[in-house]
Amino acid sequence: MARRSPLFLLPVDDSSTSLLATLAKLARLCPPSMKKPTSLLFVLALSSTAAFAADDKPSPIGYSDTPIIPGTQWKVHDIDRPRPEAVKPADKLGQPPADAIILFDGKNADAFVSKKLDEKGKPTKEMIPCVWKIDNGELVVEGGDSWTKESFASCQYHIEWKSEPHTKGNSQKKGNSGTFFMDLYECQMLDCDNNPTYADGMTGCIYGQTPPLVNAVKKSGEWQTYDIIFTAPKLEGDKVVEPAYVTTFVNGVCVQVHTKIMGPTKHKNVTDYSGSFPAAAPIRIQDHKNDPPVRLRNIWLRKLP
Ligand code: MG
To answer: What phi and psi values does residue 20 have, to the nearest 5 degrees?
Structure first.
């Protein structure tokens, strides 16, 4: 009776560890005449060829015979589902990717406007070109709040800021600024390096509502970064039917995780979503009259659905 080759007695597997195990089994099962290293290598080569031949089959790039994903028009792995466009990321983390809207890159403050102040220093309703000066490629926050010219809703937002260690005052008077999404919801920027203040006023908080999970600020005098995913409220007409949310990173540390914003942020007060709300609005950056002023750099955003 013809002797069956051990090759056909053992399963072929595509992992190298299994191949080694197979080789060991072959060594035990082979007749003495095949126990020479060259014979075993030949068997191993055959097994490998068979294994890699199975991998030559192209992987499907989509399917059309799969179930619909609930809540969508698309099937699982749908071959017709539009693929996301390519976006070139920045070479260095924190720099704007190719599809970002640049709000400030050190050259000019053209993306912003300010309010003209009256003789008592109070803001009027008249909008004027941004009064913040640029020094050393940095935006010096002095002369009142500023607003983006363009209106935004949901977005991915990046900003860097610095407060000098010798800034006068304490608590909310020291190194205070902030970004108000839609001109209503403040994500706080504050010198929180050895500067005690109330929890819902610390850097990374939703002001007056939710403290940051941790205090992730660097030392005063160092540049701090904010990366914020802001989800605008959902509206029916001008009424809010779903609140706004934020996910926030301070210096790369997550301090808010899809946190609900309860309503417009206020000093010493609570709010809700009563009344009319816009679908989009300018972003406001706060001048809290620090001495010396807070400085900003590298501000950009990406619109999100
Ligand atoms: Mg503030």
So the answer is: -65, -40
Q: ∠103-108-110 over CA atoms, to 5°? A: 60
CA 106 to ligand 1 centroid distance, Å: 22
Distance 145 CA to ligand 1 centre (A): 11
List, in order, residues 6 or more apart from 171 with CB less than 8 Å away: 195, 196, 197, 198, 201
User: Given 3-state DSSP classes, what are the helix, strand and coil percentages for the chain, each rounded to the nearest 5?
Assistant: 15, 30, 50
pLDDT single digits (tens) 122-136: 999 999 999 999 999
Q: How far is the CA of 288 from the centre of ligand 1 (A)?
A: 7
Q: What would the pLDDT profile of 246-290 be if each residue is shown by its tens digit?
A: 999 999 999 999 999 999 999 999 999 999 999 999 999 999 999
How far apart are alpha carbons 223 and 80 in whole angstroms? 45
Ligand 1 center from residue 49 Cα (angstroms): 66
| CA nearest to 202, candidates 241, 174, 231 | 174
**Residue 207 to residue 242: CA distance in whole angstroms:** 19
At 95, the pLDDT band (50, 70, 90 cuts) reads very high
For residue 60, the SS3 value is: coil
Q: pTM for this structure?
A: 0.81
- How far, in Å, CA of 262 to CA of 207, rounded? 11
